[in-house]
Amino acid sequence: MLSLAFSQAKYYVDSLSENTLRGLQQKAKRGEFPGLATNGYKNDLITHKIVIDPKAAPILKQALTRFSKGGYSIKSLAYWLTQKGVRQRNGLSLSGSEMYRILTNPFYYGAFIWKKELYPGNHQPLITKKIFDQNQQILKQSPYGKSKRNVIKFAFKGLFKCAECNHPLTAEIHTKKYKRSGTSQTFTYYRCTKADRNIKCGQKYLNQDDLIQQVNDYIDGFLWPPNKIDQALTVLSEQKQQGLKNQVSSLNYTQDQIRELDQQINQLLDLRLKGIISDEELLAKKNELTAKKLSLKAKNSQTGINPDDSFEPVEIVFKNLAVASKIRDDDQNLYQKAQWLKMTASNLLLEDKKLKITREKPWAALGAAAPGRNLG
Q1: What is the distance between the alpha carbons of residues 357 and 346, in angstroms, rounded to a whole number?
Q2: What does pTM read for this prediction?
Q3: Which CATH superfamily is domain 30-141 in?
């Protein structure tokens, strides 16, 4: 009897455990997190749902958004939250490991993990999925969470080479302070890397403003009048359309030939029925006409109607010429100027603070004298 009682008790405990897990699983599928609320949320004892903590949630939202913009480490963010009054459940200050769990917890963008499986939650999120993904990217870049996106990037760095030692140019930022006024001014300079110590390079620094001016002077050589560009694009469009018309005309002509061959085959059958030609003559002539018909069909299937791609590179060139003046005048977006140099030139050198640029084909033919050509 005692053994039977123990067996019944064990069965009851096992059933209770399975039923509890099954209930928690169903709760997770409904989008309800089956556990204690994480930092920034709290469990509502009346509705049995997880709701936002009005005190901690806005501060946590601000912290997660700040981290996504870079410049914060995990420890500095944990310290900032602690100063704002956000602490662990036991009242202790936020540690680096606890801060890492907060940053990697999908609960804050509206999902949660239960039994290693991700579920969509029906609770109110604090941040967007985009901000969460940005935080994960920052954590991948550095285990301490310090963003690398604040590294200064220079548009022309590595694009030019030193004409004296053939090493690439690098860039530096220098700040000049004025003691009398208490102000300062920042300058960007490009210089030779002088990577080889065995080579003595005497090239000096070049101010970025002077470099930009020389690049703008180079782009000046590609400024075409808008009417000439429109004329060139119109001519190209007309040639493309004419090419398509010729293809359609050729296909129609082939179809007419095929129909004519069908008529000739039918006429042969009529001649055989009237006894004008023999079976041997019918078969020989029919095979000859059928071979021509199959050849024409194969030709049609191979050619089809295909736009002429040979005009596309020329169109791209003239469309780029149309925006050359905007790229020249925009001294804020230096990357567009750098892309223009990569697209139109090669062998970019700097010697005695002067740029030496070799134009690539077909850009070499599109100099200042190009607008005077007859585009018709």
Answers
A1: 7
A2: 0.46
A3: Putative Large Serine Recombinase; Chain B, Domain 2 (3.90.1750.20)
